[in-house]
Specification:
- The structure is a single chain.
- The chain is α+β, with helices and mostly antiparallel strands.
- Helix content is 34%, strand content 21%.
- It is built from 4 helices and 4 strands, in the order E-E-H-E-H-H-E-H.
- A hairpin with a 2-residue loop joins strand 1 and strand 2.
- The protein is globular, with a radius of gyration of 14 Å.
- One of its GO terms (molecular function) is FMN binding.
- Pfam families: FMN_red (PF03358).
């Protein structure tokens, strides 16, 4: 999906469309499903918005897997917006967890 408003273009990366096995640092990159496709798309971005429903006080496991396959090359120096949705309570913990990961990646 791509839209243009005020000179910006956006692309939605729906993690349901990516095969991302649970991250294992010693796993051969050829066995990582769509991880390379995901990191290539993130690398191309000027800014990133991460969004997740709140699960058990944190963000979703598909987002965790996506972040595990990503690193400094994809996030360093980029502006990152954060969005968390919760059915009831304010999703502070999920937002804090995402912020901590982005800070660790120098976003």
């Amino acid at each position: 999906m791509q839209t243009r408003t005020a000179g910006a273009s956006t692309k939605l990366l729906d993690l349901r469309e990516y095969e991302l096995p649970i991250f294992a640092a010693d796993c051969d990159r050829a066995d990582t499903g769509d991880a390379q496709r995901l990191t290539d798309r993130l690398s191309e971005a000027d800014a990133i918005v991460l969004g997740s429903p709140t699960y058990h006080g944190s963000y979703s496991s598909p987002l965790k897997a996506a972040l595990d396959y990503s690193g400094f090359d994809e996030f360093r120096g980029k502006t990152v917006g954060l969005l968390a949705v919760s059915g009831g309570a304010f999703p502070v913990a999920a937002l804090e967890h995402m912020r901590s990961v982005c800070r660790a990646l120098n976003a």
